[in-house]
Amino acid sequence: MDRLPDVRFARTEDGVTLAYQVFGQGPPLVWMPSLSNIVAQWRVPALRAAYTELARHLTVVLYDGRGTGGSDRRIDLGDLGLEAHLRDLRAVLGAAGLTRVSLLGYYHAMATALAFAARRPAAVERLVLFGGAPRMREAMTPAQTQALLSLVDQDWNLFADAAATAWLGWDAAPSHRFIAEAFRTASSAPVAKAWFEAARRIDVTPELPHVRAPALVLHRQSEAQIPVEVARRLADDLPDARLVELPGSTPTLFIEDTAADVRLVTEFVTGRPLAAGPGRAGLTPREQQVLTLLAAGDSNKEIARRLGIAVHTVERHLAAIYRKTGARGRVDAARLTEIRHGH
Fold this sequence. Notes:
The protein is an alpha/beta fold. 45% of the residues lie in helices and 13% in strands. It contains 15 helices and eight strands.
């Protein structure tokens, strides 16, 4: 994606202004926020690659919740519970003109996605759920999480760095630096502390039987983060859900195997398998990332910067791509992506 999507603004029922972005084509997927900064997140190579790939088949909506990112920072810190988050989601959907969507409930936003789907079944096509819990305190009780949360009002900069590495596994430079900066600029210590304190009181388990949308429950956390039993119980309690335990131990999506995670989410939301495309099925996940950025027009130096690797490593990946696909050069290789997506 050559340029960042424009930042738009929505206004909630209680007068809070929210920053959001819409990009891509296809069925709409709203990637709901925890502590977020949608502009800073584009600087994280793995996230940019994920956004770019998702947008090939889906209309992606990102937004910053109240008190975070480009949204209003001066808010009522006593009003950061479930109803406030539901007001934020309704405002973004209204401003974007969307009446029926799929929701990616990610970490803090999982409970909000479940509650919205239960209360507004006609508005929700499908649910992708990762990293949180209907009873949010269950996602916050592991000892490592408690230790990290204790840093919020002690040392905000240290919390951002620790959250990027120990909590979310972003330990590869420059991804660590970019994701830490996204955390640091997402909010302030007082707002973050109020977010987490409010989250402990959120419990949407009584609403689970009323969720009618098919749900994909994803898990890739070690026991130090969220035990798999939490995800299994959620899948069992929802009327129409399946659990997929993802390989790896990094407790996030789109970092260990961006291509596989994107494919899984996209195929579930669209309801159809994605064609592998001419010569592309044999590429490694990293080679697919390189090819995606090449097709977007990035130079070798830009690809190296986005993926946090050396230029000569990009050149090595390109040589492998040309060999595996039979492409005669950059233009020919880029055409594989165009053919794959029917352009």
